[in-house]
Structure formats: C-alpha cells, structure tokens
Specification:
2 copies of one chain form a homodimer.
Chain A: E1 3-8, H1 16-31, E2 35-40, H2 46-57, H3 63-87, E3 92-95, E4 102-104, E5 113-116, H4 119-126, E6 130-134, E7 137-140, E8 145-147, H5 152-164, E9 168-173, E10 194-196, H6 197-205, H7 213-222, E11 226-230, E12 238-241, E13 264-268, E14 271-280, H8 285-295, E15 303-305, E16 312-320, H9 324-339, E17 343-347, E18 350-356, H10 365-376, E19 383-387, E20 390-396, H11 400-410
Parallel strand pairs in A: 1-2, 1-9, 2-6, 3-6, 4-7, 9-11, 10-12
Antiparallel strand pairs in A: 4-5, 7-8, 11-12, 13-18, 14-16, 14-17, 15-16, 18-20, 19-20
Helix pairs in contact in A: 1-3, 2-3, 5-7, 6-7, 8-9, 10-11
C-alpha cells in the first residue's frame, strides 16, 4: 500500500465530465490498494473570471479581500470533486487550506507556507476517506484567508506530500510530462522518462511552464518524489528523481558516467533587458543598483557586467517585461544619479535560450558547442550566463525559436 | 451614533453596479455618524447555479460538501462588497460565518445557530472598519462549514443584531416593505409603515414571502427591531414594532383602542390537503397519525377534525405540496391500517387565504365577516383555522386570488 498525493490542475477539473474522469481514476487507485490525497485547483478559467469581476467592482482591491474572493474557486471545485467521488462510491471529504492546516504568513495574494498541521487530513486517511484539499490556500497567522498565488496548487501538493511522508506526489496536468523542449516549437521534442530535481529547477526557471517553479523548489528542498503526468491520457509521465543513480532512472544507461548529458533546451520570451551604461567602476555600485530594484520588488534575473574600460563599466540585466516600466522609472528618477551612471537603454524583444544538463561544468566543450551552433545559424548572442547545469544566451526574440530548433538537433535531442 | 446591521439580498448585490450602489449607501450612513455591519447574500442566482452544477457532477451529494460548495457564493459576494466599499474610501473587512463566530449544529444544508462569538466583528467595529459578514453560514461543532439554508441571510442579520445589541436590523430587499396583501394580486395594496412581530410572524407563516419566516421567529424571540425596506428605491419601508403603543407606530391613531384592526390579507398556494376518512374516534389516533408524519419530517400545517359521527371521524390537514406523495405513501403503507382508517383522499389545488390583525379574538364579528364576504362571492370554504390574530380559510386554488381581492376591499384595506 502506497500513499499518493495527486494534484489536479484547472483544466483537469474544468467540467463535470472531467471531474468524473478524475473520480474514476481515484477509484482505480484505491482498488489497487493505494491511499490517495487529492489537491484540487479552481475549475478551468474560474480564477481569471473572479479577477475580472473584482476589476469591474472596484479600482481598490485589498489583498485580504482578493484572497477571500479567489479562494472561493478552489472550495467549489473541492466540494464538487467530493460529490463526483461519492457517485463512484469513494468516501471523500473536502478541506479548505485552513482545515487542512496550512498556516501561512500574512502576505496576501502571494502567501508563503509557514507550517502545516494536517491532523484532519491524517484522521480522514485513517478512516479510509479520501481527503480533497483546496489548492493554493491557507490561513494566516492573523486568522485571515490567504492565497498562495497562481500555480500555488502545485506547492500545496508538494508541501503536503512532504508532511504526510507520501510515497509519490503526482502533478496531473494537461501535458503528458516534461519534454526535451517545447513541443510546439520543435516537433521532434520527446518526453523524458525522468529528470533530476536540479535540472527541472533550471528548466522551470528558464521557461518550461510546468510544474510551477515554486513547487519544484519545495520538492527540491525536501526531496519530495514527483511524477508529472497527464490527466487526459493517464499515460506515465516524467519522474523527478534525486540523481541518475536512482533506481527510478531508466533512460541514461547508454551514456558514460562522466559524459555531459544535455537533457533539455528551454526558451523564455517574457523578459526584457536593461543596460545601465558608463557606470563608474567603484565598489558598492552594483550593490546599490540591485538593492534598489530588490526593495521595489523587481525580480532581476540574468546579470552581466562588461569588462571595465578606463574606470567605467556597463551593467546589463534582465527583468520580467511587466516590471520594465517600473524598473526604468525607478532607475532614472533615483538610482542613476546616485551611482553616477549617464545613460540607460532597454530592449523589450529579447529571448533567452538555455541548454540544461548535468556534467557540463567540467566539460567546457558544451558551452562552446552552443555558441558555435548559434553562430553557424547567424544568431547573435547579447548576454550569456551559466550555472553548474545550465548555459543561457540572450538573443533577439524573433530568432529564439529557430535557436531552440538548432540546439535541439545539435545536442542530439531530436527523437 | 447608532449601530445598524444591514442585510442585502441576492438581487441587491447581483452585479457590480448594485454593489457600488450599496457601498454608496453605507458611505452615506457613516457620514451621518452611524456604525454599520453588513450581511451579504450570494449574488443574484448564484446559489441556484451552484446547485445545478452539483446535479451535473453527481447523483450523490453529501450535505457536508453541498455546504462547502454553496457557501462559496456568499464569500465571493462579501469580498467583492469590501472592494466596492474600498473604492468609496470606506474601510471594510469580510468575515465568513466561521470568522464572524457563528457556531452551528451539524445539520448540513439547514444548520441551526447554537451560539455566536462575534469578537472579530466587534474588534473591526472598534477600529472603524465595516464588517461584511457572509450570510447564511457558520462552522459546526465538528469544525465543518455549514449552510443555514435558503433565506438564511435574514436569520444571520437578525441573530447578529441581537448579539451586537444593534439599534436596528435593516433587511434590504427588492420590495419596498410589507404590504397589506400581495400587490401583484390587489392593485390597491398599500405598504404598511409598521407592523407588530406577531402579525409579521402570522403573515410570513401564511404566504407573505419576505422576510424569511425563520428570521422573524428569531426577531420575535429576542425583540430585535426590524426595518424591511428596498435596496432599489432606498425609501422608508416597514418597521416591525413590539406593539402599537410603540412610539415608532404612526398609522393606527384613528382607530379606537380596542377596535379589531385587520392589517393584512395573505394567500398561499403551496400546500395540499389530505383527508383521512372514517377513522375510529379513539384516544391516541391523532397522536399516532401526526407522530408518524413528524418522524418522516413532513411539516403538517392546518389540522381540522370533523365532528364525530357514530364513533367515526374525518381528519383533514395540509402539507407542503412537495411532501404530498411522501406523506400519502407513508399513510397508505403503514399508518392507516394501524389506526383503522378506511379511506384517504387528497386535494392538490387548494389555496389558503388568511386575514391577520390584532384584537380579532375578542371581536367575533371579524371571522363572521370573512365567511360572509367569501359566501357573497360564492367562494366555498373547505377548512378553517384560527389563531389569536389570524383566521385562515382553505378554498379552491383557482378562486384564491379573487378571495384575496374581496377580503382586501371588505376589510377597508384598499389604499
């Protein structure tokens, strides 16, 4: 008997037929003798509809009330899912974030989990009842309803798996797993049978849309075994494993132990580039620059500082495009004068292309091969950043997909 | 400075425009220096839509999950109302039934309030914040979400008024007050400036649709002053007073102190009549009959036992038409044999017409005048029942409205 935490996203529970399909799946798992805990998102586009309604009602939308509003979506979906389970003779009970014991901070709209006290969930399991937990919600230390943010249901499922000691956390979604690259861009993209936490973390950080970044961070921290799979085809998806020594890993046997393995190519068109030029090259300048941006909650990603030329330097970095205006206003009105910079330029239409895989740090040929591939296809690189298992290049947005296609072929990922 | 509890029903908060109209009204009340607590129902027809969705999902709908589902409607409405208030600079905070301290029994879909611990509501008031409380909901002694039933928001408002010691409980709705009879049936129906608790109780019990019966019972028990009024015209509605000595009463000055005052005519087409004929006239027969019906949760209303004829009697009573089949099946399968009754007949198409007003018990002419009016218009009476302030006659359904019109004229209620 194994304990599964199964999370179903909005499209997986979008209508009564989908709910019954999920209920049938849970009934099958129980017939196999397994225990199941469900985590459910709001149905289909309901969260978007609630946000639209709030915009119609008022220009002033306090976070506390937005959370009260939005969390109604998951509650409805959980209650309906319990009824769907009842119709196939599976006893079930819904739990709000609060009832499931998710204690969060008071940061409305984007609350962080502080602690989970899942006594009621455990009691339900002990009675043979399937707990159906509302995703992405909790109760704050001030006893107010909180929302964990978009994509928060993945985090709910992973965190709950950890505290329950689940054997596997299954994230059911509308794709069938994690692919070597975006299948919409590269036809020959293939589903990976397994991937390590580190690699998945780099992939979600550089454009792979599912699962939500934050849930991968939690899974990574607590080593929660994940299975990313489809609620439409029910086929086996992608297992997220600790390392390739893991017995779950099935698809790396033919490579040498120390060979670099490029696992995936990702791309991300959601960022913009800012270059602050002609900055005096003094200690503390970068600190001032990025501290001001951090204080304004601008999430800076890649940072490149060019070689100093006669005591001056250019600093380039990327920010989410939605934060671009805010960041430039802040820089022009306050920061630039303070650090003595003279000019600022921005580029909105950029794309970041990344290759991901273990072992590349000790194999310098990997980065070189990436640059050569792009050069051979006349794709210009404007920024580069690397991690232990990733190389990212910023290119023009309109050639980003072409870059992905060439890299996917060059690194032998075409299926 | 007075404290008002103001309840707004579904049509009063059906869309963003209506919500803003309510917010403007609250802002006006606060400018006058008054304190306001809001109780909000689900928007428009949302509760019906949630029920329909549940029917689509499953034939099995556990009460606990139905309550989790339905209460999402009031939560949404409360959160949106707080945003509407914020847009007119009124600080507000939403409270679920649980957060507002409504502790109920575990009778899902129709829970009864056991106790209210409104500490958070009081704390908000003390800070100058308008508490916006979700109507018709609470948390059970088992810590599950409960729904107080349809029309339960009125009960929430009245009960909260009592525990807060509010100066007035205002029930805002889509009609402008309590009328001498149904204005759709009698054009000359007039709005009453005031009415006593007793009279309103009899009126809601015999067909006056608003406010909900149960809330009037609570208001009656705790003498909670009510004002039933319109959220569309905002004109003064009907005050519910303790007695006509009340200084609030303005429209009875011309009548002598002991004159019977017929205040209203009501009618109700939702009941059916059952006659159990030829019952041996022995002690305990009625007890058995009505105990079985009570155990089956059939709500018996009027009961008439005809004069015994040679040791046998006929017992007629009315039940809600929706319970008619269940009641007759129960009687025919079990009860009739047990009490020795030989035949049973039912009449579905009946109407109950009632006149209501204080002082009629010591003025026998009132009932006689009612019977004469019906007879003069060739309307046949099949059952009669009376209380201290009401006389009801069962007539054929198709002449019930005509009966109302003639009685409204005969008792000088035409405006």
């Amino acid at each position: 008997m194994a304990l599964y935490v199964q999370k179903f996203g909005g499209t997986s529970v979008a209508d009564p037929d989908r709910m019954r399909a999920v209920a049938d799946h849970v009934a099958r798992c129980r017939r196999r003798g397994d225990q199941v805990v469900l985590v459910i998102s709001a149905m289909g586009k309901e969260t978007d509809e609630l946000l639209r309604m709030a915009e119609q009602v008022s220009d002033v939308r306090p976070g506390r009330e937005m959370d009260m509003l939005i969390t109604a979506g998951e509650r409805k979906a959980c209650a309906l899912m319990c009824m769907a389970l009842a119709s196939v003779d599976v006893p079930a009970a819904s739990f709000t974030g609060s009832q499931a014991g998710f204690i969060t901070d008071t940061n409305h709209r984007n609350a962080k989990i502080l602690e989970i006290t899942p006594e009621r969930v455990i009691a339900a399991l002990d009675e043979g009842i399937v707990p159906v937990v509302a995703g992405s919600q909790g109760v704050s230390t001030e006893r107010d309803v909180t929302f964990l943010g978009r994509g928060g249901s993945d985090t709910t499922a992973v965190a709950l798996s950890h505290v329950l000691g689940a054997d596997l956390c299954e994230l059911y979604t509308d794709v069938s797993g994690v692919f070597t690259t975006d299948p919409r861009v590269v036809e020959k993209a293939t589903k990976m049978a397994s991937i390590t936490f580190d690699e998945l973390l780099e992939m979600t950080a550089t454009g792979c849309p599912k699962p939500a970044m934050r849930s991968v961070e939690v899974a990574h921290s607590y080593q929660v075994p994940l299975h990313i799979r489809s609620a439409f085809t029910w086929e086996p998806g992608t297992l997220v494993v600790d390392s390739y020594d893991s017995p779950d890993n099935k698809n790396e046997s033919e490579n040498g132990m120390e060979q670099p393995i490029i696992r995936a190519v990702t791309h991300d068109l959601s960022e913009s580039k800012i270059t602050v030029a002609d900055v005096p090259d003094r200690p503390g300048v970068s600190a001032k620059l990025f501290r001001s941006l951090a204080n304004a909650n601008v999430n800076v990603d890649m940072i490149v500082q060019n070689v100093s030329d006669q005591g001056h330097t250019d600093i380039s970095f990327t920010v989410p495009t939605e934060d671009l205006d805010r960041a430039t206003t802040l820089l022009e009105s306050e920061v630039m004068a303070e650090i003595g910079a003279t000019s600022l330029s921005t580029a909105g239409a950029i794309g970041r292309v990344s290759i991901i895989g273990a072992g590349m740090k000790s194999n310098p040929g990997v980065a070189a091969k990436m640059f050569e591939t792009l050069a051979a296809n006349e794709i210009n690189i404007s920024m580069i950043s690397t991690s232990a298992i990733r190389v990212s290049c910023v290119v023009d947005a309109d050639v980003a997909e072409s870059a992905v296609q060439h890299l996917h072929t060059a690194f032998d990922l075409d299926g």
